[in-house]
Amino acid sequence: MRVFAVAEIRLGELDPVSVELLNLANSVKGDGKSEAVVIGKDVGSFAEELAKYADVVWKIEDDSLENYNPELYADVLLQLFEKEKPDLILFPNSSRGAELAPLVASKLNAPIATDVVGVDVKDGIKVSRYIFQGKLMVDIMLKKAECYVLTVRQGVFKEGEETNGEIVDAGIKPKVTPRREFVGIIEPEVGEVDISQADIIVSVGRGIEDASNIELAEELAKLLGGVVAGSRPVIDNGWLPKDRQVGISGKTVKPKLYLALGISGAFQHVMGMKDSELIIAINKDPEAPIFGVAHYGVVGDLFEIVPVLIEKLQKIKG
Amino acid sequence: MKIIVLAKHAADPESEIHLKDEKTLDERGLVFDINDWDRYAIEEAIRIKENLGGEVVVVGVGKSDDTLRKCLAMGADRAIKIPIDAGMDPFVTASAIKEVVEAEGFDLIIAGLMSQDYNNALVGTLLAGMLNVPYATAVTSLKVENGKIRVTRELEGGYQEEAVLSTPCLITVQSGINEPRYVSIMGIKRARSKELKEVSVSAPEGVYEVEKMYYPPVKKAEMITGSPDEIADKIIQILKERGLL
C-alpha cells in the first residue's frame, strides 16, 4: 500500500504526532511505501526530520500556505493525491487534522474514520475507535474503496523504525481562492495561577454539579497547599476561568498529586494530566474512564467523602 | 439570515452504557436527549436571529422528535425530520441532510462539533465538503459582520485561530461558546403550533460496517473502599507515605 501521512506544523514546529503517523504508515504499508506530506511556506527542515521516518517526503511550499487554511491545504493535497493515487491517507486527529481530513475525504469520495487507535489492513481496512467518550470501543470495517482517510489519535503509535527517505518537491501551488480568510492566532489567556507549575492540583469535573461547590475544592486545595483546576464542562459553565482547564485544548500538567473529583476522564482531559506522579480519582460511576489512568480510585459520592477529608486534614494541620 | 441547525437525539454517555450483544447497545439504561454540542448550536442560531432577524430551521435525522421539539421550544421556527436510521454512519447522515438543506437554501449551517454518543465529528465537516461551502470547526465565538461570519476556533494548548468566512458557510461549535437557555413552559406551548415536517430522502448505502463493540481494556486503579471516614483515612495515609503531607 502507498500510505500518505499529512504532517502537522504547529506554531512553527513539527508536531511529534507527525512521526506517530509515519510509525503507523510503516507498520501497515506491506510492500508499499510510507510517504509524508508537509505543507507550508518554507518546510525544508521539517522535511529532513520527516525523512528519518518515511520512504518519501513530499514538500508542498508556497507563500500562501504559511498559515493553515482548509481550502488551500485541501486543494494542494488533492492535486498531489490525484496524481499519486494513495491507498490510505493519515491525518492527526488534531484541531487542524480533524477539520481538514473530512474535506479531503469528501472530495475523493473516500470512506473516513476519525480518532482511530487501531488499524488492521488484513482484508480491507478495519479501524478501532472509542465511542461514548471512552466508555466503549468499536471495530468498524470500512466499505471497499480505492482510497481511505483516517484521523489518528495522538500518543498511540509511538514505536517505529527509522528509515532514510528521499525528499521530493511536489511542485504544487494552490489553484483556488479561499472563501475563509485567516486573520491570526490568539495566544492563551494568562491567569493569576499557572496550574502547569503546581505540585498539587485538586481538579473538578461535571460531578461538582454547581459553581457553589467549587468552594469545597478550594478548601481542600488550600489544606494540601495546591491549586484548583477543572475539566472542560466546568470551564464551559464558567465556574472556573479558561486558564484553569486541564486537557489538550487547555493546559498539560504534571503535578506530584492530581486529585480528580467528579471527572469522567475523557481522552481530551486525560492527555493533559496522565503524567502526574500520583493520581487519585473520586467518581460515582464505576465505569468512568478516569479509573483507567488513576493510581487510586474511589467509587463514591464526592460530597460525602471530601468534607470528611477536609475535616481530617484540618485536624492534622491544627 | 436563514440558519439551519443540525440536531441529534443522542444517548448520554453519562447514562448506563451496556451491550446487548457484540453489535447492539442495550437501550434500557440509556438516557436520550439533545446532543450536548447541539444545544450550543441551536442557542447560537437563536441568538443570531434575535439580533438580526431571519429564520432558524432545525434538522434531525432518525428518531429525533423530542429533540426537534426542544429546539422549537427554545426558539427555532420550524423543524424537519429525516426518518432514516443511519446507525453509526456519518456518511449516510450527511448525505441525507445534504439533500434536504440544498432544497431549503441557507446562509449559515450550524452543527455541533461532534455527537456525544459516537464522537465522529464528521457530519458537519462532510456536509460542508458535499455542499462545497467554506467551513470552520470547534468554533468558540461567532460574529456576523457585513454578511460575513467572523469566528474564533479552538486549537490546542489554549490557543485560538481567528478567521472570517463568506456566506453561505457551515460552522461546528465547541461547547462553551454560549450559555444555552432553558426551555420555558411558554416556549413549550408556542412550539406546539410550530411546523415539524417529515421529509423522505434516498439515503445512500453506508460505508461503516460495525463488526463488534466491546469494553476498552484498561489497567484499573487500585480501588479504595469503605465508609467515607475509612476512605479519607486511606487517602491521608497515601499522601503521608508520598511525603505530600
From TrEMBL, chain A:
It comes from the Archaea. The keyword Repeat does not apply. Coiled coil: none annotated. GO terms for molecular function: electron transfer activity; flavin adenine dinucleotide binding. InterPro entries: DHS-like_NAD/FAD-binding_dom, ETF_a/b_N, ETF_a/FixB, ETF_alpha_N, ETF_asu_C, Rossmann-like_a/b/a_fold. Keywords: Flavoprotein, Transport. This is Electron transfer flavoprotein alpha subunit. It comes from Ferroglobus placidus (strain DSM 10642 / AEDII12DO).
Automatic annotation (TrEMBL), chain B:
It comes from Ferroglobus placidus (strain DSM 10642 / AEDII12DO). This is Electron transfer flavoprotein alpha/beta-subunit. SMART domains: ETF (SM00893). InterPro entries: ETF_a/b_N, ETF_b, ETF_beta_N, Rossmann-like_a/b/a_fold. The lineage of its organism: Archaea, Methanobacteriati, Methanobacteriota, Archaeoglobi, Archaeoglobales. GO terms for molecular function: electron transfer activity. Residues 22-204 form the Electron transfer flavoprotein alpha/beta-subunit N-terminal domain. It holds the Pfam family ETF.
